[in-house]
Amino acid sequence: MTMDLLLFHSPTADRNTLGMEGASRLAEVLSDRISVAPIHIGESGPLLHGDWHRQLMNTRPVLRQLGNTLSDTLDHDRFPITVLPRCAAALGTLPVIARHHPDAILLWLDAHGDLNTPRNSESGYLGGMVVSAAAGQWNSGLGTGWSLDNIILAGARALDPCERQLIDAGAPKHVPPGTDFVERLLAMLGDVACYIHLDCDVLEPGHVPTEYACPGGITLETLSTLFRHLSRNQQILGIQVAEFESRRQETSPLFDPSPLASTLLAACPIHRGTGP
């Protein structure tokens, strides 16, 4: 299957520029590995100040552009690899996936649930409201399409009370990190096709630079095992990655994204039928 590499590099809910820089560096490595030039959406620019509503108003046009580009990829039966600086950009991608694959599972690999809404969010952080918007819990103006029943929060461990209430009520499903993580997740997923969102903070702190560090995460090796299994079974409809920062701190040396790129490629069609 032909692959498209989408690079979104506009600011959304960024608190620093490390996510935009990290996305560009990761896309560069992926491009070299798969010999596919990235499709650029948006432009790097100054951080967007103000509350979540102002950030959303400012980014909605370019997020629509991101969604349209992804839709074109899917219309042409190409496998999308989408690199995002921040999870907030998924407001533009998730409704498109739901429209093209209404029966799919959203596999949300993230330390957080991102199920807050403008009404109950204590932080008012736009990136923490992405899954709830995709599931129609509030109106982002960018679309919905996902049922909570078709969402799995995988690796989540920093959950707010309102998110735990939803999980306790039965949807979305939750697979916490820990022993037999891959086996538990595969058992819950079954043989249904899935779209993968990877927030790098699902990883144990120290694997890659991220804005948030949440102890108790999973490893790159665990992710690779999961991705290889799903890819061999042709269950992956596409993958997007967010929250990889280029450096551990503003003044730190650049971090090599190659190990993360290798893990992502385990989910891609070029690796189907290979590996242990």
Given helix and strand content, the structural type is: alpha/beta
* CATH superfamily placement: Ureohydrolase domain
Please tell me what the overall shape is.
globular
Number of helices: 8
**CATH T-level fold name:** Arginase, Chain A
Q: What is the CA–CA distance across the termini?
A: 21 Å
Number of strands: 8
Gyration radius from CA atoms, angstroms: 17 Å
Order of helices and strands: EHEHEHEHEHEHEHEH
Biggest sheet descriptor: 8 strands, parallel
The residue ranges in which pLDDT falls below 50 over 5 or more consecutive positions are none
Task: Give the percentage of residues in beta strands.
Answer: 5-15%
Q: What is the averaged pLDDT score?
A: 96
What is the CATH class designation? Alpha Beta
Organism: Aidingimonas halophila
Protein name: Arginase
Family: Belongs to the arginase family.
Keywords: Hydrolase, Manganese, Metal-binding
Structure characterization notes:
The chain is 33% helix and 14% strand. The chain has 276 residues and is an alpha/beta fold. The protein has one domain: Arginase, Chain A, CATH 3.40.800.10. It has an eight-stranded parallel sheet, with helices on both faces. Helix 2 (52-75) packs parallel to helix 3 (94-100). The longest helix has 24 residues, at 52-75. One of its GO terms (cellular component) is cytosol. This is Arginase. Belongs to the arginase family. Pfam families: Arginase (PF00491).
